[in-house]
Design a protein that fits this description.
single chain, about 300 residues, alpha/beta, Rossmann fold, N-(1-d-carboxylethyl)-l-norvaline Dehydrogenase, domain 2, 9 strands
């Protein structure tokens, strides 16, 4: 059995860690102020370490589940980073959302240090993370993917190998652009409906009968009908980060990103006018307020 180390025990990471322990895996986690409470994980056998270097010394496989590219680079390449402590043959699996060009660079550093690397970003929400039902989009060597698949299946329902290193993060950004872009569009329409006097339940019902039906509507529906934002536990700040990463990827590949840039600018304004830690459904009243101010 591989000794697994994990960095990033946030809303998604806590579910991943819990399911690794549930399946009998040997797990260590990094202590960090941004973690969810570790008491339950400790009670089920998880060890804790204070630096990424120390955690890497005691791990055969290190899973990263941090906010984004700056954090990935810091925990790998910092003064007490994973690269300073990992042993030859150590596997690094990055489940974060990151800029693909950075992913390729950090993978090269991991391999130059004798390690192996997969990018395996996830989709779905903290609810599915807790249930062990995430989707994973994996980039990297096929043989290494097959070697690690039984570990990934501890916390994922659907595991797709999408190509070489970096392909997982490219697919994740494509996915999140479509997902978050759809949510932003629907939120703006919902605000217009409110200002036009259209009943929220009617708005939801009519869209659900036709071309407006989909995951974005289902996730916004609890907020629209009862003010509950928990249908999409994804912050405005994280949405802006992902749209920024997507636009950077589009620029790198010389792809048109006119719509994506508009969504990014919309999220920038929302983060400025409101609380960046608000959940995505809470952008709707910001749209209402903005339209009211514009009038």
């Amino acid at each position: 059995m591989k000794k697994i180390g994990m960095i990033g025990i946030g809303m998604m990471g806590h579910g991943i860690a819990s399911n690794l322990l549930k399946h009998g895996q040997s797990l260590s986690v990094l202590e960090h102020p941004g973690n969810q409470p570790l008491d339950t994980l400790r009670a089920h056998g998880a060890q804790t370490f204070k630096t990424p270097k120390e955690l890497a010394v005691h791990s055969d496989l290190v899973i990263l589940c941090v906010t984004g590219t700056p954090q990935v680079e810091a925990v790998l390449m910092g003064e007490d980073g994973v690269l300073k402590g990992m042993q030859p043959g150590t596997i690094v699996i990055d489940c974060s959302t990151a800029v693909p060009s950075s992913t390729e660079k950090v993978a090269e550093l991991v391999m130059a240090s004798g390690g192996r690397f997969l990018d395996a970003p996830m989709t779905r929400t903290p609810k599915e993370a807790a249930e062990g039902r995430l989707n994973l989009l994996v980039g990297g060597d096929v043989a290494l993917f097959e070697e690690c698949k039984h570990i990934l299946s501890c916390f994922a329902e659907n595991i797709v190998h999408v190509g070489a290193i970096g392909a997982g993060h490219r697919m994740k950004l494509l996915h999140n652009y479509v997902s978050l872009g759809s949510v932003t569009l629907l939120a703006e329409a919902a605000a217009c409906a409110e200002l036009a006097g259209v009943n929220a339940q009617t708005f939801v019902d009519v869209l659900a009968m036709g071309g407006g039906w989909g995951a974005a509507l289902e996730r916004l529906k609890p907020f629209l009908v009862s003010g509950d934002p928990s249908g999409l536990r994804f912050t405005l700040a994280n949405a802006l980060k992902d749209l920024s990463y997507y636009n950077a990827m589009a620029q790198d590949t010389q792809a048109d990103h006119t719509v994506a840039d508009a969504v990014k600018r919309t999220l920038e304004i929302a983060c400025t006018q409101g609380d960046p830690q608000s959940l995505m459904p809470q952008i709707i009243p910001l749209f209402v307020q903005r339209k009211s101010n514009a009038s």
